[in-house]
Amino acid sequence: MSAASTKDSRSRSPDPTPIEDAGDGLTAKQARVLAKSEQPIFLIGGGYFARRAAASSVHKEMTGLVLDVECPHPDLSVLAPPARVETAGRSIGIDAVKLFVDRLCLTPYAMPFRIGFVEPASALTIESQNAMLRYIEEPTPTTRVILSSRRAEDLIPTLLSRLLLVRIAVGPHEDQEVAILAQRFGESEEVVRKLSEIMDDPDAIQRILEFRLAKNALILYDAISSGVRPEAKMADAFLQKRPAGENTILFVEVVFAAVCERMRVMAESEPHADSDQWRRLAGKLLVLQTELRYNPHRPVVLAA
Fold first, then answer.
1. Backbone dihedral angles phi then psi of residue 303, each to the nearest 5 degrees
2. Long-range CB contacts (< 8 A, 24+ apart) of 57-60?
3. By the 8 A CB rule, do 50 and 171 touch?
4. CA dihedral for 165, 170, 176, 182, sign (positive or negative)
5. What is d(CA 14, CA 158) in angstroms, rounded to the nearest whole number?
6. Order of strands, edge to edge, in the sheet holding 114-118?
7. pLDDT confidence of residue 16
8. For the whole model, what pTM was predicted?
């Protein structure tokens, strides 16, 4: 995704500020330290439920309240993709970011700070990330921001360089949620845990489980992340259980996650001659995700 960013200077951008890995979730001490940070916090790694638990711990240290995104308190602004019942897409557009920033700039109502929570940050489009960057470069003194995403690579380098990175490992809370989902959908905990590791969207995980597509999704992910180029027959195998539409969106999300993993593996090993092709594919998938937001029934054509 970073390859598709604008001409923000990569070489001039300062490195992201890391802290020690959070280990098995966040300790109380780590949560207290993070709650005092004026730098925006970016929770990465682990699984969705583990990151949400970590965000709630930091939020509670800041406010004394548990993080409630469904019924937020007056000083909490939540930036998330629209629900699937409202729109087929799962991206966060620039208008939503502008509204989010406008709210953060208001005087706190009851708390010492206005708190902004972005989940998942991977849903931010390139334009939205640049809009967020402009605010983070000159934040208001009474604001704190927490972002959450599975991969640091989901953000453009210039935005990433201004965040405090906190790597989260899977904690006990994650295991409880996995067990609940496995029992609810009649799937093994191993399969549900694997889905939560590769998908950054709990709604997408539940849809995949509901549509009985979990095993197809994991086969697709494992093949592409190991270096197999996406082909039309992969889409057919994934989509044949239901008509195209919402399944198409889920299919593209799985492919995008696998392509990002493939790029990460390639970056850690020797340079590959086809790395540019994988980056171009990632860029095309980002565009496709946006197009599916407005036309979920458009056909998906994959070519190596």
1. -140, 140
2. 57/25, 57/26, 57/28, 57/31, 58/26, 58/31, 58/34, 58/146, 59/115, 59/117, 59/146, 60/31
3. yes
4. positive
5. 8
6. 17-18, 164-167, 41-44, 143-149, 114-118, 76-79
7. 44
8. 0.62
